[in-house]
Design a protein that fits this description.
The chain is α/β, with parallel strands linked by helices. It has a single domain, classed as Rossmann fold, CATH 3.40.50.720. Helix content is 38%, strand content 13%. The protein is built from 9 helices and 10 strands.
């Protein structure tokens, strides 16, 4: 078990999307080890039912695609809140039709990246407090699906205002942004005791992430064959929800990562860097670790969200 016998008494964590799939399993383990956890939720009744009556788990409303909702959440959370030891950016959507936020941003980028960028910025004072003490960690869930966006984030047209929309490319762009954000945040947070990591949880057997997708959608990118079956190489890598949450928990809790940060992790270890033409299902591709893209995405995210980190 990744969490082992670690005692998280006194640990304060926020886990987005912590009421379904690997997010719920992450919350369960953190709570089991003694942590107090806040779960932001777009559907508060659903989250409350899913999490039961766990005594140290609190559900608060939050819509990551709505900047005003994020501001309300962080204002409520920071009222008498302790230092924030763990921020786990787990929530996400995948391969949706073209949808836009009220601000005009493509919904996958807005939900998966921009919302978490704003959330981390507004929770930065609490992360700093923990960082000045025993240290804080921010875990950003990315995906091996970042390989579907060769070249990474389109910094000139991130919301598909001029180019044709492709649901998988848009998902991959948002997941690339997640990995780049962890790199950028770690570089800024290291001096303050706040480290950031990106996590590819793997191919999970059953989650709500694929609720918008048909068999044809998966077949179009080679994730299902003509009979609707997974290719053998992919099927061999399918994980249970518990296994999928393991790398998140490893990055959040492992002493092996003390003094480290900014790394892309999978299978409870730091992933290898692979070249742009790599055809395997493992590793992190160049556009998800490009230094120039890291800097440009940070500037773009500040501009699109109207949010700045008070470092």
């Amino acid at each position: 078990m990744v969490a082992g016998s670690v005692d998280l008494t006194g640990c304060f964590a926020v886990v987005t999307g912590g009421y379904a799939g690997i997010g719920k399993e992450t919350v369960r383990v953190l709570h089991e080890r003694g942590a107090t956890v806040v779960v932001p939720a777009r559907d508060v009744p659903k989250a409350t039912i899913a999490l039961g009556n766990l005594p140290r788990v609190r559900v608060l409303p939050l819509d990551l695609a709505d900047p005003a909702s994020i501001r309300r959440f962080t204002a409520e959370l920071q009222d008498n809140a302790p230092p924030l030891d763990l921020l786990i950016d787990n929530a996400g959507i995948m391969a949706t039709p073209l949808l836009r936020t009220a601000g005009g941003h493509e919904l996958q980028l807005a939900t998966n990246h921009l919302g978490h960028f704003q959330l981390a910025a507004e929770l930065w004072p609490l992360l700093r407090l923990a960082g000045d003490g025993r240290g804080a960690r921010v875990i950003v869930l990315t995906s091996g699906g970042h390989r579907f966006a060769p070249g990474g984030v389109d910094l000139d047209d991130p919301s598909y205002e001029r180019r044709p929309y492709d649901r998988w490319q848009a998902y991959a762009q948002s997941k690339t942004a997640n990995a780049l954000f962890a790199l950028a945040l770690d570089a800024r947070g290291e001096a303050h005791g706040v480290r950031a990591f990106s996590v590819h949880p793997g191919v999970i057997s059953s989650t709500e992430l694929s609720r918008n997708l048909s068999l044809a959608d998966f077949q179009a990118i080679g994730l299902r064959d003509a009979e609707g079956q997974m290719p053998p190489a992919l099927a061999a890598r399918v994980k249970t929800i518990e296994q999928g949450a393991a790398t998140t928990l490893w990055c959040a809790l492992s002493p092996q990562l003390a003094g480290s940060g900014g790394v892309y992790c999978e299978d409870c270890e730091i992933a290898r860097a692979v070249p742009a033409d790599d055809k395997s299902l493992e590793g992190v591709l160049p556009w998800a670790r490009d230094a120039a893209a890291v800097a440009h995405l940070w500037d773009l995210s500040e501009r699109l969200t109207g949010t700045r980190f008070t470092l």
